[in-house]
Amino acid sequence: MDGNIFIYGDIYPEGEGAGVVSLKSVTEQINAQKGAERFIVHIHSRGGDVNEGWAIHDAIIATGKEIITINEGMVGSIATVPYLAAKKENRRSLPNAKTFIHNPWGGLMGDAKEIAKYGEDLKKEEEKLAQFYAEQTGHDIEDIKSKMDAETEFTAEEAKSLGFVGSISEPLKAVAKYTPKTKTNQTDMSKVEAKIDEQKTLLNTILEKLGMNKKALAYTLENGDAVETDSEDALAEGQVVTLAGEPVEEGTYTLEDGSSFTTDADGVIVSITAAEDDDMEALKAENEDLKAKIADMEAVASKNTELLDEVKGEVAKLAKLQSTYKAPKQAAAFRKPKESGDTKEEKESYDAIKARRKEKQNKANK
Question: How many Å from the N-terminal Cα to the C-terminal Cα in the chain?
């Protein structure tokens, strides 16, 4: 499994500002990918602090893993030191990337002795860099010193001819990312990834405006690896398939959609096999099953409708029936009191009878 280290931005100690890459941020990236068998170091940096650059170089070497470095835009000044942490054959460059070397410089306020001492330290650092460049490139040290004096910028081809670059490759559009395991790492690395995304966006924008950003299509294999082709067109025979910037090994690869392709030793697609249409057959069978269930439900609904119609007919018949019962006439329970001439006792008796009758009517109404 490959691990990825991103040096996108100026190199300074932690806390120097936005877009800064430090020893701390690089170490966090390394520690978050302890299972990596090798590290690919992506660099786009103008340089920065000399001591921080050497510290990052040493941290990368200290992993003990195989190191691949890629110049993805600019490797300048002290950024050349981490770039040269890889063996020559593992040092790559994009076609339009630049390499820039110069003598170390700085500023100091102090007395004559302090300034003289600072000048001696700068000269030592200059000799150290020149010697390091000569050892890592195999180029003549005196010629390197003259180019450092002249603050020289090299094209990818020129850097390759001088031994700084081992090979020139096409731009990478996607690389594997790691997921930190602890909340602390997640918090720290979110800042690093934000800086990385900012630098990648800027680099891609510049390359696109210059017409040098060749777009490619990415595909995901069934094991989760992301591969790319060298074409903007759909997957086809003759295209070169790469994984982390390198042509895939000869063999057959299955994509997550079930389709597969076979490549030769150069990573070129020689055949493509479409995915088996098992899902479509399953959908057809499921569709037929649903149709049968719907037919059964429609039959039950039709039977229920017939029963409902029968019930409605019976209810209609009952509604037409009328009762022939008539209540018998009843004689008056009491005679109406006379308007006049009744005795006092007779009137009181009538009043009692009417009261009882009214009471019964009230109870009946309730």
Answer: 93
